[in-house]
Amino acid sequence: MARAIVLTTGGKLAQEAKKHGIPTFIISAGNYPPRYALGCSFLGMLGLIIRTCSLDIKIRDIEESFKSLESYSQQLGEEIQSSVNPAKNLALKAKGKVIVIYGAGITTHVARRWKTQFNENSKVWSFFETFPELNHNSIEGYYLPAEAKKDLLVLIRDR
What we know:
By secondary structure, this protein is α/β, with parallel strands linked by helices.
């Protein structure tokens, strides 16, 4: 039988969970943008999973992840010059373009997230699709109109 656990900022969901005896964990409430709230909810869920599912995730592994994120933020920060900042370089390449992100397998979810982040944060027109569509239907549309090619940026990267 599946167990339910509720992770919420409170409100009606918390009330309903408590009414039905479902363990409820409250995370910090606030009017956060989704890009911030994702981190808060992810860490809360990770903590719950570690404690309730007996996963073999070590605190040092999480600390290593934070160190990596900190390193990336030092490379990609707003104050870092465009000449050495891959994020700014990508933004410059994307300026004025329609962006298409392809993903395959597990990277499908990354492609979807990138698409929404380009839409929401950069206010640009972007789409995502998955393989094998690139090799079947989508690629057929890349030929016409020919004028649109100069305004299209396709992001594909997978080792």
